[in-house]
Specification:
6% strand, mainly alpha, 6 strands, 2 domains, two-stranded antiparallel sheet, four-stranded mixed beta sheet
């Protein structure tokens, strides 16, 4: 049904369902007509949604942990064991990886398999073996079968293989990666289906959709959107470490081959995503986070030689860890101190940077504890699903209600819980909303207004 994404990550998430055995109604018209959104909502909420989500997300966490392991191994092999531990700690306490690493989406699986692929590719060295090429190809296939933006990885490998005259390796890796893609599609079609389905990426997105950045809406967006997103969503210690590593790198490479792979991939990925991806979330550039963590760990050996350097590393890693601990459990709306924290996040970005509907349970608890009556809800839910009602909240306001009740007129008396994503948009559509002040926030993603 969903040709916009390859199936591997979703298959991993679905494995627990073989044991849970939820009801699957293939007689429903939504199944017959391949209406993926409607069928998905009926399947999820027609069963125990929380139970399905919990066990499906367990598989995603394992993939995220795989990425952490690859990050540790590559940093260790490049710069030593302390650097490996340092890079793994940066990965483990990254608010953005924590936010999306537990969700049944394709972003963190791509990040995890990307760093694994590049590590195995680097590990082959100057004298690759067919075993090493096959293993690298299998990891490459997993990245490509997790998300279509993983298809840029072969271009990176082709470039480096040609530079080292390893043409034979390319054919071996290509064969192994195509095998994984075939497995992901359960051998239901030729590998060409994968490449045909790439044309469906963003095909259902409005061409003139106005993207949001720094308080402005603009169709087409900005070339620097993802640079700004990284600057405000990465922790400040991460940004400081990048500066330190850049200064250190002016003295030369520690491991030229490994660092070139890291830096070229980071630059190429930023360029490709900035040119081709919708500007709706830092999650699109998650693969550069573990690569950046590995590269900045190059400073660890030198810094550990002095007490001042050791203290600096300890302070930065503790600060980075605290950024995640203090944010728990609201990782999606995390913004660093440079941006003013989560409360000021909507001044910079919207969509999955601030809210992805993750605060419904918190909103239900908030409303229940305060015995709120006459409650209206406008949560992030592009599919108009039954999520709010499932957790005991009123149904989301409909399109006509939003226009008549919220935008054209002052809202009628009552309490309104509204997604911070929609607040950023409503302030542009109706100047009145720039004057309304929230009385509270729920989970840093939902704003509470009283009229």
């Amino acid at each position: 049904m969903n040709r916009e994404h390859p199936p591997l990550a979703k298959l991993v998430a679905a494995l627990p369902l073989l044991v849970l055995r939820p009801r699957l109604d293939t007689s429903d018209q939504s199944w017959k007509s391949s209406a993926e959104d409607l069928f998905g909502l009926k399947f999820l909420y027609g069963n125990d949604a929380d139970r399905l989500l919990f066990w499906s997300r367990a598989g995603m966490i394992l993939i995220a942990a795989l990425g952490s392991g690859a990050t540790f191994l590559w940093a260790r092999d490049l710069f030593g064991a302390p650097a490996g531990v340092f890079a793994a700690a940066l990965y483990a306490f990254c608010p953005n990886l924590l936010a999306h690493g537990m969700l049944v989406t394709t972003d963190v699986p791509l990040a995890a398999f990307t760093v694994l692929t590049l590590y195995l590719f680097w590990k082959r060295g100057d004298r690759p073996s067919w075993r090493g090429d096959i293993i690298t190809g299998l990891a490459l296939g997993a990245a490509m079968a997790s998300k279509f933006s993983g298809s840029f990885l072969p271009l990176i490998l082709i470039g480096f293989c040609l530079a080292r005259k390893q043409v034979k390796s390319l054919f071996i890796m290509a064969g192994a990666s195509l095998l994984v893609i075939e497995v992901a599609y359960l051998f239901s079609a030729s590998p060409l289906l994968y490449f045909r389905n790439m044309s469906f990426v963003n095909a259902n997105h409005a061409k003139d959709y106005p993207f949001y950045l720094l308080g402005e809406l603009k169709p087409g967006g900005w070339w620097y959107y993802f640079l700004v997103a990284f600057a405000v969503k990465a922790t400040l210690p991460t940004l400081i470490l990048i500066v330190f590593a850049t200064v250190e790198a002016t003295r030369g490479f520690i491991n030229r081959w490994g660092e070139m792979i890291l830096l070229v991939t980071i630059g190429a990925y930023l360029f490709v995503i900035s040119a081709a991806a919708d500007q709706i979330g830092v999650r699109y550039i998650l693969p550069i986070f573990p690569l950046a963590f590995i590269w900045v760990s190059r400073i660890v050996p030198d810094f550990l030689k002095t007490r001042m350097g050791t203290a600096a590393l300890a302070i930065l890693i503790a600060w980075h860890a605290w950024s995640a601990i203090a944010t728990f459990p609201n990782y999606i709306p995390y913004f660093n101190e440079l941006a003013g924290g989560a409360a000021n996040g909507p001044a910079f970005l919207d969509d999955s940077n601030v809210d992805w509907g993750q605060g419904l349970k918190q909103a239900a608890e908030y409303a229940g504890n305060r015995h709120i009556e006459n409650l209206k809800v406008y949560s992030f839910d592009p599919f108009d699903g039954p999520g709010p009602q499932y957790y005991g909240l009123p149904k989301n306001l409909g399109t006509s209600e939003i226009r008549d009740r919220l935008l054209l007129n002052r809202p009628s008396p009552g309490t309104y819980i509204i997604s911070s994503h929609y607040i950023t948009r409503m302030r542009h559509l109706s100047p009145m909303w720039k004057t309304y002040a929230p009385i509270d926030r729920v989970g840093e993603s939902l704003w509470v207004f009283a009229f």
